[in-house]
């Protein structure tokens, strides 16, 4: 049954439209987005699809093919931050954020279905938020530009769901383009679409989902964010983005014995520099040379930011020993996925090596797939 047919079965008439928004992989630039820094995600072919119709009676009905909740019914004038905790918080949070921004959204019937793996660090939450926001933006003719739509979705996640995340995932889902990675300056949301077609160059980027579930609303993400903000305050800057790479040593010295803050600052400043290096290498057509930069990024997340885990480290170490060009964890950390850059001819060997290492360690078998840079959110029908 198609998503539109399911909508009709649930709600008694055909949807006004069907939209899709993708999950993402981040190539480089981790935890820099709440430090006004640089990120470089690209959209996956995996999407969350929403069939949607407007309502005028203040009722919001939500249904997902992926959970067994049945139809959840809410009232748009009663939904409030932190009032629900399950999957419905994401679409309801978007309705709340739109209304709070002054947009007259008077209700909706929504049916969702997703192929974005959940808890895998691939932004299933952002896909859910962005598809809801785009559908309502178009149906209610709100005329919100994509970057601002992403901001509203981030607000829903921060205020309504209660996860203190940055702007990367929602912007990736809303703004990425087929065959490109998105170089985003999270300070002013300036974007550059960078051509990223590994297949044409005989390479592949593998995503290895460790199956270790992670969440952003628990304390560790927030602790890193608070530590970065403390670092910026101690250094007298608006955000760690303002610490230039060649001023890093001096900045670390000024932080004295604040050892934990020093490590966080070192990661953010070097990571912003790594994004700029990857952008330069890709623009120069020197794609293979990004491999070592990815490796440095992983070491920094593991040793300085301390958000890796044994399973992610095993993917990276095994893949590199088996001949990968570069590898690192991607996304928020504490589980989720790693990315592995390989020559296409080595993809199978590297995949097998990782699978065998997981089996030998007694870990749940990882899910491995090739990431194809795909289109951002769009209307399907
Ligand atoms: C998660 C967050 F949602 C993003 O905003 C970003 O901070 C990322 O972790 C780490 O780079 O995906």
From TrEMBL:
UniProt domain GHMP kinase C-terminal: residue ranges: 280-359
Subcellular location: Cytoplasm
EC assignment: 2.7.1.6
Domain Galactokinase N-terminal: from-to ranges: 5-54
Family per similarity comment: Belongs to the GHMP kinase family. GalK subfamily.
Main location: cytoplasm
Species of the source: Streptomyces flaveus
GO cellular component: cytosol
UniProt lineage: Bacteria, Bacillati, Actinomycetota, Actinomycetes, Kitasatosporales
Protein name per the record: Galactokinase
Molecular functions per Gene Ontology: ATP binding; galactokinase activity; magnesium ion binding
Binding of Mg(2+), residues: 125, 157
Site keyed Transition state stabilizer: positions: 24
Keyword annotations of the record: ATP-binding, Carbohydrate metabolism, Cytoplasm, Galactose metabolism, Kinase, Magnesium, Metal-binding, Nucleotide-binding, Transferase
A Pfam family assignment: GalKase_gal_bdg
InterPro entries: Galactokinase (IPR000705), Galactokinase_bac (IPR022963), Galactokinase_CS (IPR019741), GalKase_N (IPR019539), GHMP_kinase_C_dom (IPR013750), GHMP_kinase_C_sf (IPR036554), GHMP_kinase_N_dom (IPR006204), GHMP_knse_ATP-bd_CS (IPR006203)
């Amino acid at each position: 049954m198609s998503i539109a047919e399911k909508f009709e079965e649930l709600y008694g008439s055909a949807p006004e439209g069907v939209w899709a928004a993708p999950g993402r992989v981040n190539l480089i630039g981790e935890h820099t987005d709440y430090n006004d820094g640089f990120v470089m995600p690209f959209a996956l072919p995996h999407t969350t699809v929403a069939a949607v119709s407007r309502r005028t009676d203040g009722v919001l009905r939500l249904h997902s093919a992926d959970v067994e909740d049945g139809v959840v019914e809410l009232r748009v004038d009663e939904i409030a931050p932190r009032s629900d905790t399950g999957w419905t918080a994401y679409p309801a949070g978007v309705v709340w954020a739109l209304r709070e921004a002054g947009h007259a959204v008077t209700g909706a019937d929504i049916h969702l279905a997703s192929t974005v793996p959940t808890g895998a660090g691939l932004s299933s939450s952002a896909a859910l938020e962005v598809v809801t926001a785009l559908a309502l933006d178009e149906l209610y003719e709100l005329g919100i530009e994509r970057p601002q739509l992403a901001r509203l979705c981030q607000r829903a996640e921060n205020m309504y769901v209660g996860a203190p995340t940055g702007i990367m995932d929602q912007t990736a889902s809303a703004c990425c383009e087929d065959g490109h990675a998105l170089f985003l300056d999270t300070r002013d949301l300036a974007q550059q679409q960078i051509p990223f077609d590994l297949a044409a160059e005989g390479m592949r980027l593998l995503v290895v989902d460790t199956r270790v579930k992670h969440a952003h609303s628990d304390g560790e993400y927030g602790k890193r964010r608070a530590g970065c903000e403390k670092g910026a305050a101690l250094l007298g800057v608006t955000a760690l983005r303002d610490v230039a790479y060649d001023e890093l040593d001096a900045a670390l010295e000024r932080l004295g014995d604040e050892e934990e803050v020093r490590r966080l600052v070192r990661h953010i400043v070097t990571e912003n520099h790594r994004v700029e290096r990857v952008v330069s290498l890709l623009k120069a057509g020197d794609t293979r040379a990004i491999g070592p930069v990815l490796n440095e990024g992983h070491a920094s997340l593991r040793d300085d930011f301390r958000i890796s885990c044994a399973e992610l480290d095993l993917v990276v170490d095994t893949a590199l020993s088996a001949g990968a060009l570069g590898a690192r964890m991607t996304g928020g950390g504490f589980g989720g996925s790693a990315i592995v850059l390989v020559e296409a001819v080595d993809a199978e060997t590297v995949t097998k090596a990782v699978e065998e290492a997981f089996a030998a360690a007694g870990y749940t078998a990882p899910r491995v797939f090739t990431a194809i840079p795909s289109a951002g959110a769009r209307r399907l029908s």
